[in-house]
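User: I'm designing a mutation panel for Translocon-associated protein subunit alpha and want to avoid disrupting the core. Could you give me a predicted structure to guide residue selection? Please restate the sequence first so the numbering is unambiguous.

Assistant: Good idea. Sequence first, for numbering, then the predicted structure tokens:
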Amino acid sequence: MAHRSLYRPLFVLGLVACCAAYAAAQDTPRAHPLTNLPPAGEISTGYFFPGYPTRQFIAGEPVKVVLGVRNEASENYNISMIMGSLNNAQEFRAYYWNFTQQLYFQIVEPSKELSVEYTFLPPKDLPPNDYQVALTVFYEAADGFKSTTFFNQTITVLEKGQLIDWKLIFLYAIFIGLVFAGAYFAWSAVKESPIYKNVVGKRTRKVEVSRAYNDDEWVKGTPYDNFRKKKAAAANKGSPKKGQ
Ligand SMILES: *[C@@H]1O[C@H](CO)[C@@H](O)[C@H](O)[C@H]1NC(C)=O
Ligand SMILES: *[C@@H]1O[C@H](CO)[C@@H](O)[C@H](O)[C@H]1NC(C)=O
Ligand SMILES: *[C@@H]1O[C@H](CO)[C@@H](O)[C@H](O)[C@H]1NC(C)=O
């Protein structure tokens, strides 16, 4: 117990020093901020991955996460930074990668909300697999640093090209649809055009006449049959005239 009470202030000092070192972007700090997280403050969080709703990330492609923070405390919080790590999905203690921290230093007042964006990069040569990603936001109150791990879940990392790109498939479908619609309208326009009628129309008329001759039995004896015969006779009379 005596150890702990001694250790706490030292730790906070260490974290401050460590953040200062990060801010200055110089030496590697002695204690990594993710090794021993500060206690949680009173915030509620929400997040979403705009580009990856299914949380299937692609090795070598940056992943953006939007974090919404709501300050539920009665004091201001200074949102300092977000950091994250990529861990073994079965054994969280085995970490593979620490994502670069991003600094914000933005104040969120009591009962107010703030959203920040954090981008991390699953390493390019990461073997496709399930991993556990933990993302932690650090913020500072009057009594020191606090942290909240707002995302700590299993995700899938895929190789580039492995992901079924529904957006792209959808675009292809629309494109093919448009091509067919275009072809149909073009065909309709051509069909109605005088040139097409001149070229193909005569042939079509001939086909119609010959079909009239070979009509089925069922019209025999009906008024239509008579009409048809007359029409055929007229066509027969007409044809030789044309030839002369
Ligand atoms: C990554 O984070 C872990 C804590 O989760 C820490 O122990 C380790 O030193 C960090 N590694 C690097 C290279 O910063
Ligand atoms: C937030 O914290 C940073 C780092 O401690 C500090 O430099 C900055 O002035 C703080 N912002 C406000 C408005 O207090
Ligand atoms: C993330 O969840 C694992 C269990 O799945 C747990 O062991 C680990 O401590 C959590 N990490 C953080 C930073 O909360």
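For picking mutation sites, this is relevant: The first strand starts at residue 43 and ends at 48. The pocket of 2-acetamido-2-deoxy-beta-D-glucopyranose (ligand 1) is lined by residues 32, 34-35, 85, 95, 98 (CB under 6 Å).
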